[in-house]
Design a protein that fits this description.
Blueprint: E1 5-21, E2 24-38, E3 41-46, H1 60-75, H2 86-90, H3 97-114, H4 119-122, E4 130-132, E5 134-137, H5 143-155, E6 160-164, H6 171-180, E7 185-189, H7 199-203, E8 213-214, H8 222-231, E9 236-238, H9 245-253, E10 259-262, H10 270-282, E11 287-289, H11 296-305, E12 329-330, E13 340-342, E14 352-353, H12 355-361, E15 362-368
Parallel strand pairs: 5-6, 6-7, 7-8, 8-9, 9-10, 10-11
Antiparallel strand pairs: 1-2, 1-15, 2-3, 4-13, 12-14
Bound molecules: 2-succinylbenzoate (OSB) and magnesium ion (MG).
2-succinylbenzoate binds next to loops.
C-alpha cells in the first residue's frame, strides 16, 4: 500500500450545546481531518485534539504543524505492508499522539477500503453487532438543568450517564442526581481537578455507588491514583494518564484503576489502542471507548474500535445530533431505542462523507504528495 497523497483539512462547527469540563467550556470545535490517498482510494481520519492545550498538551494548531512538518513526511511515498507500520514510522516524534493517531487512523481506513471490508473487520473487531452507549454530560449552570438533561438522555435510551465534576460541583450535585435517579448506571469524570489532599472529600462519593470515578487526579500521575484507589470503594477509571499499553500495564500493576477509558487519539491510533485493550483484557480490567466531541469520522472510528471484545462497558460514543445540527457524514450516527449503535458493513469506516457540507465548513486545507 503506497501513500501517494495526504490532504489535511481544518473544519469549524458550532456545538449544539456548550460542553463544560473542569478545564473549561467548549462552544465551537476546530477539527483537523486527514485524508490519505493511494492505490486509487482515500482513507479518512480525525484528530481528536481540542481547541486549547487543556485536556492534554495538544491542540488544533499543534496537530496541524506536527502533521504537516513531521508525521506526513515520514509516511508519504512509503510502501507500507499494512497500517500497522504507521505508528512505528512516526514514533520518533515525541508525544503528539492525537496528531499522529489521526494520520494512522486514516491509513487503517484506507487499508480497509482497499480490502473492500469494514474498518471494524480490518482492526480485528466484530465481537458485537451493536455497541452499548452512554452519554457524557458537562457541568451545567444549575442542578435542575442537569437533572432535566439526564432525564432527556435516559428517555432516549442511553444506558449510562456520566456527569462531569469539579471542586464546588461534586458531592452535593451527585447526591441530588442519585436521589432523583436511584437505580441508573451513573459515573463521574473529574478531568484531573483534584489532588490527594481531597481524598477524604472524594471518599464521600462512595455513598452514591457510582460505576466509577474517572481521572480524579493529575493527568500524568499514576502513583497518586494508586494511593487514592486504596482508600476508595468506587473503582477509579483512568483516562488522561493512559497514553500507551505500557502505561496501562503500569497502572494495573500498581492497582491504580479498576477500569480503563480508551481514546483512539490519546494513545496514538488503532495499533496502540488495541495493545491497551489487550493488556487490560489479560488482566481482567474492562475498558470502554471515550469520546472527544468528535465529528462523524472520529465517531465512526470509535464505533469500529468499540467492537473489540473487551469493550464491555457503555462508552461515550453517542448520536451525532447531540453535538451537531448537521454532521459531515451520511447518514448521521444514530442510536436505537435500546441505547446502542448498530455497526455497518460498508467498506472502511462505514459512512459516506458529505462532501458538499465538508467544503462548507472547511476553513483551511493543505496537501502533500
Ligand atoms: O474526559 O472524557 C473526557 C470531552 C472533551 C475532553 C475530554 C472528555 C470529554 C468528554 C466528552 O467527556 C465525551 C463525548 O461526548 O465526546
Ligand atoms: Mg475523561
Amino acid at each position: 500500500m503506497k501513500i501517494e497523497k495526504v490532504i489535511v483539512r481544518q473544519i469549524r462547527m458550532p456545538l449544539v450545546h456548550f460542553f463544560e469540563t473542569s478545564f473549561g467550556r467548549t462552544l465551537e470545535r476546530d477539527i483537523v481531518l486527514v485524508e490519505a490517498a493511494g492505490e486509487g482510494a482515500s482513507g479518512w481520519g480525525e484528530v481528536t485534539a481540542g481547541e486549547n492545550p487543556f485536556y492534554n498538551e495538544e491542540w488544533t494548531e499543534s496537530a496541524w504543524l506536527i502533521l504537516r512538518d513531521y508525521a506526513i513526511p515520514r509516511i508519504l511515498g512509503k510502501n507500507l505492508s499494512s497500517a500497522e507500520d504507521v505508528a512505528p514510522l512516526t514514533e520518533h516524534i515525541r508525544g503528539h499522539r492525537m496528531a499522529r493517531g489521526g494520520l494512522e487512523a486514516a491509513i487503517w481506513d484506507l487499508e480497509a477500503r482497499l480490502n473492500n471490508r469494514p474498518l471494524w473487520h480490518q482492526i480485528g473487531g466484530g465481537a458485537r453487532r451493536e455497541i452499548p452507549c452512554g452519554v457524557s454530560i458537562g457541568i451545567q449552570d444549575s442542578v435542575p438543568q442537569l437533572l432535566e438533561k439526564i432525564e432527556r438522555e435516559l428517555a432516549a435510551g442511553y444506558q449510562r450517564i456520566k456527569m462531569k465534576i469539579k471542586p464546588g460541583w461534586d458531592v452535593d450535585v451527585v447526591r441530588q442526581v442519585r436521589e432523583r435517579f436511584p437505580s441508573i448506571k451513573l459515573m463521574a469524570d473529574a478531568n484531573s481537578a483534584y489532588t490527594l489532599k481531597d481524598a477524604e472529600h472524594l471518599k464521600r462519593l462512595d455513598a452514591f455507588y457510582l460505576m466509577m470515578i474517572e481521572q480524579p487526579l493529575a493527568h500524568d500521575d499514576i502513583i497518586d491514583h494508586a494511593v487514592l484507589q486504596s482508600k476508595l470503594e468506587t473503582p477509579i477509571c483512568l483516562d488522561e494518564c493512559i497514553r500507551s499499553a505500557h502505561h496501562a500495564g503500569q497502572a494495573i500493576r500498581l492497582r491504580a484503576c479498576g477500569i480503563i477509558n480508551i481514546k483512539l487519539g490519546r494513545v496514538g491510533g488503532f495499533r496502540e489502542a488495541r495493545r491497551v485493550h489487550d493488556v487490560a483484557q489479560a488482566a481482567g480490567i474492562p475498558v470502554w471507548c471515550g469520546g472527544m466531541l468528535e465529528a462523524g469520522i472520529g465517531r465512526a472510528h470509535n464505533i469500529a474500535l468499540s467492537t473489540l471484545p473487551n469493550f464491555i462497558l457503555p462508552g461515550d460514543v453517542s448520536a451525532s445530533r447531540r453535538y451537531w445540527k448537521r454532521d459531515i457524514i451520511c447518514p448521521a450516527v444514530e442510536t436505537t431505542p435500546r441505547g446502542t449503535i448498530e455497526i455497518r458493513d460498508d467498506p472502511g469506516f462505514g459512512y459516506a462523507i458529505d462532501h458538499d457540507f465538508l467544503r462548507e465548513v472547511t476553513v483551511r486545507e493543505v496537501s502533500a504528495g
